[in-house]
Amino acid sequence: MKSGIVFNIQRFSLHDGPGIRTTVFLKGCELKCAWCANPESQYPGVGVQYDKTKCIGCGACVKACPNGGVACENGVVTIDRRRCTACLSCQDGCPAHALSSEGTKYTSGELLNVVLRDRHYFDASGGGITLSGGEPLMQHGFVVEFLKAAKGEGLHITLETAGHSERFAEALPYIDLLYFDIKHPHSAAHAAKTGVSNELIIENLKMAVREGTNIVARIPVIPGFNDGEDLWPEYTALLKNSGVLNAHLLPFHQLGQQKYRSHGLAYAYDGVPSMPKEKLGKMRDYFANEGITVQIGG
Amino acid sequence: MDYFGRPNGRITAMREEMMSIQPEVCVERAMLITKAYKENRDKRPMLRRAIALDAILRNMSIYIEDGGLIAGNQASKNRAAPIFPEYAIDWVVNELDAWEKRDGDRFTITEENKQKIREIAPFWEGATLKDKGLALMPEMARKYYDIGIIKVEGNITAGDAHLAVNYEKLLKKGLLYFRDKAEELKKQVDMSYFAQMKKQYYYEATIIAIDACLAYAGRFAELAADMAAKETDDERRRELLEIADICVNVPAKPARSFHEALQSAWFIHCVLQIESNGHSLSYGRIDQFLYPYYKADIESGKLTEDGALELLQNFWLKTFSINKIRSDSHTKFSAGSPLYQNACIGGQLVDGSDAVNELSFLVLKSVAQLKLTQPNLSVRYHRGISNEFMKECIQLIKLGFGMPSFNNDETIIDSFMKWGVSKEDAMNYSSIGCIEVSIPGKYGYRTSGMNFLNFPRILMTALNKGVDVTSGEKVYDTDAYFPDMKSFEEVWQAWESVCRHFTRYSVILDNCADLALEEEVPDLLCSALVDDCITRGKTLKEGGAIYDNIGPLQVGIANLGDSLMAIKKLVFDEKKLLPAELWSALMNDFAGPEGARVQAMLLYDAPKYGNDIDEVDSITAKAYQVYIDEIANYRNTRYGRGPIGGKYYAGTSSISANVPQGKTLCATPDGRRAWEPLAEGCSPTHSADVNGPTAVFNSLGKLPTHDLLGGVLLNQKLNPQALIEERDVDKLILMLRTYFDVLKGFHVQYNVVSRETLLDAQAHPEKHRDLIVRVAGYSAFFNVLSTETQDDIIQRTEHVLA
Questions:
Q1: What pLDDT, in 10s, does the model give residues A47-67?
Q2: pLDDT (average), residues B743-754
Q3: Residue closest to B649 by CA, chosen among B707, B712, B714
């Protein structure tokens, strides 16, 4: 049985597909979107996270780290990510449980047992499970094995993906609903802010349409990046040419800001205010006029 | 948030008036009852009591508010709390000067009135319910009472209530029907036959009590007519004349209109709270017994929906005008001076069809517009309840004052039948007080609300050679000492034995309270309105009710389960902690780095109840089952004297008892620090439930809910953000349906208030005068709660729908 690294399992998710769902967040992403709200999910391996509120400042972690990667000054711990090998010695050594692993290993069977716990709620509400990330398809071997098992249980499956995967076709047959990110219609702009161009993504989108998968395009609307009116016709043309007639516009939010700060990571959008939903009304109307069914927010 | 709209001008003004009141203490009742008792020392308590009620109702101050459409007041002013010296006088005298200085539940009293209380106090010394109740307690039981390990203070310092009388019958037949029946049966009593002798006095007393109530109504008829004669406004004069007319007719005779039905029910509800200061006096299924009158008046064009709404709201304002002062220590168990006057709507008709009607919707609207702490509104959920009605309920929940709470027909009806209630009666159950359930008009007092047993405290005693850690007294015969224990089996056995021992003593204490209540303070009017007291010639406490089972309250379920789990896993399975090491950390309240290390392990390395983790959920259920099995062996004081049942069942509708019961408890093996609150009802420990609401529901679903007819309290807190979108509301309803239909949950209620709002209210109480929160099974104004209870509410895990 294959195993993979999960960084969060959220039960009673309401905004990741129909009904009541359990969302599984998988670690690792090839894209490096500058606005990413889950920066800790980009790194594919297990990391260490620090909770300042639990820390008692005893310094036990400093002694526990075999690589000299942990420092404790004025009762605050910092971890040098370059020296961290995720051996988790610091976690074991911490008496206050302020350090914990970022990401937990699950076999596909273990993960299935967890998601099945809320089956009653899925059945009653027309819900199911959603795979998110990171990019779930980074761990394609594990994910495909899991998807197969989940499909065997008759669960409704939603996949949230950035679409940038060579192995996309392997996962596709198990997907009931695809939440497919379209971050920018221009390849160069896409590459500039996400680190990858969008050709493979568009190709995969078209493949999913050909296979008859139920698709919702998701556009994270980021100030100064893809919120310009001039892009709207290009977006709608891209969607219509691909055959996708449902879209969600996701207004830029700052739920991830604190994570950058606590992880000591640089953040391009630090201090940029969250975008109110109302701001997307005109964009929604434009899309709707073009025959695309739009919802603001997930 | 104007979904339900605002009340009209008259109601708004009355509400504003009521809200601006600083509650006082009223001494009228105390003076009148003292005089009546003095003059009737020779009479049997039952007769003395009826005569005293008569004296109070004929002589107390009465008034009709400006614009008021419903008449009947409990004390000389709205929101003033009467004193009931016959139940207990010691705390009243001792705390006279402290009421104004209380942190929560403040009351004012004039120096003159303080003096009056001091003057009557000597008459009551040694003669109150409390004195008589304490005198009945065997030595060890008295010790448990004194150290508070079993709490029955509320039962011997106040009346019973915790029931709904037969309002349906009252409205249909009128009070004279009950009087005639008593008169008729009195004639048949053969005084030469000893077994019947007591009934003679019962009937005499019942007739006096009914006549007293009718005289009280008659006074309002006169008052309204007098006021009408002086009134210059034509419209108001017409209203007052109508009130006068109504008060002549009800409660004596059958109600002829919706207005009369409300007035009749109100007279009784109010007088019952003058007769006794028992709380949780509830209305029962108000949308059912009022419906025929509502429907007839609407159809005949006599009443408009707005008119009905106004009357209902006036009725709720009256309900809110009732108040109760409790001793300082009892106040901590019932924070926010709640009366728990429950009104129940929804549910099913006897044939299983949906009972929701237009009036159910109107009740929701009336309560929503008023935003008051009373009544305590509950909805009976069932599988066939419409989404339309559920959505309306969620709209009310969104207003954030904790109402309505939901009880589940899918579990409760079967449970009642299991406890001997007929199907027809079980289908007609109603919520009572907080979250407990009963059969209106047919069930004895206190379906829940008997003794409080502190589970984690008796566990700690069992592990400490029988010495209560808080008081240092040896209270239980054992040599078992945790630091010497070699296996979890020993811990488990200690729990089993201590649980059985204290369960037995809790029944002894309940019996003492019930015997004293039966002999000293019988409620005649209340008994007359519960079937079949009159037929049997018995008060409720003598076994007059058709059904009579009672529910004590168990406190700290989650703390018990989490503690046993942590001990099992960390000390015995994984051997990460030595027994002595854990014990020493607990006795030192986790002081020092070593203590902090142990506490962190307890908190984070052992699974916690409420996260849908089978290991800990099953240990919690198993530990609770010890009590559930044991309490089932006992009978109450009415067993074999008439009622079906006469038994005990477990329950956790433990109001805010988790706070004071935590305040008398050292650190516990679940990682809880000394003196901190315990978990509430069957809810998980604060902040321990990290897997979201479905996981909490799943954990609760593993408890033996069918055996817990005393209530399975679950509080959930929701951020208002979570209910903005219609689709989120739909999903919340689906989650509730799953909890109730599939997992057979008992109860759930929601607090939709953000943490920021609560913190702000603590810092700026003046800005949040009307902020109401769910404390446990009831709602209270946040401002009147003690700082500790406020903190407790803030700390409850807030479930944000993702």
A1: 888 877 778 888 899 999 999
A2: 86
A3: B707
Ranges of chain A with pLDDT below 50: none
Higher local confidence (pLDDT), B195 or B240: B240
Task: Return the number of CB contacts < 8 Å for A and B.
Answer: 74
| β-pairing verdict for A246-251 and A214-221 | parallel
Q: What is the pLDDT of residues B394-416, one digit of tens each?
A: 999 988 788 999 999 999 999 99
Q: Average model confidence (pLDDT) for chain B?
A: 93
Stretch (H or E) spanning B239: helix B234-249
Query: Which pLDDT does position B796 carry in this prediction?
Result: 59
> What CA–CA distances, in Å, run from B674 to B141, B286, B570, B664?
25, 44, 20, 8
CATH class of A47-102: alpha beta
User: Looking at the complex, does the CB of residue A54 fall below 8 Å from at least one CB of chain B?
Assistant: yes
Mean pLDDT of B579-599: 96
What residue spans define the domains of chain A? 3-43+104-296, 47-102
How many other C-beta atoms can be found within 10 angstroms of the C-beta atom of residue A105? Answer: 12
Beta carbons of A120 and B742 less than 8 Å apart? yes
CA dist., res. B527 & res. B207, Å (int): 12
Q: Cβ contacts (< 8 Å) between B737 and chain A: which residues? A: 124
A124: chain B residues, CB-CB within 8 Å: 734-735, 737-738, 741-742
**Minimum CA–CA partner of B722 in chain A:** A14
Question: Which sequence spans correspond to the domains of chain B?
Answer: 452-799
- Summarize pLDDT for B647-689 with one digit per residue, the tens: 999 998 866 788 889 999 999 999 999 999 999 899 998 778 8
Q: Which CATH class is domain A3-43+104-296?
A: alpha beta
- Touching check for B355 and chain A: CB below 8 Å? no
What global pTM score does this model have? 0.91
CA of B120 to nearest chain A CA: how many angstroms apart? 57
Beta-carbon count within 10 A of B5 CB: 10
Q: Which two tokens stand for residue B212?
A: 């007293």
- Give the tokens for residue B137: 């307690």
Would the pLDDT of B44 be above 70? yes
| The CATH classification of domain B452-799, taken from the options 3.40.630.30, 3.90.550.10, 3.20.70.20, 3.30.110.10 | 3.20.70.20
Q: Which of B510, B628, B489 is nearest to B150 (CA)?
A: B510
Report the complex ipTM: 0.88
Of A12, A15, A16, Cβ closest to residue B692: A12
Contacts of A59 in chain B (CB under 8 A): none
Chain B interface, best mutation among A21, A118, A253, by max B CB count within 10 A: A118
Instruction: Please check whether residue A10 touches B, CB under 8 A.
Output: yes
Q: Which of B593, B698, B734 sits opposite A124 (nearest CB)?
A: B734
Which pLDDT does position B800 carry in this prediction?
42
Q: What's residue A40's pLDDT?
A: 81
Candidates B368, B275, B274; CA nearest to B323 is: B274
Q: Does any CB of chain B come closer than 8 Å to the CB of residue A14?
A: yes
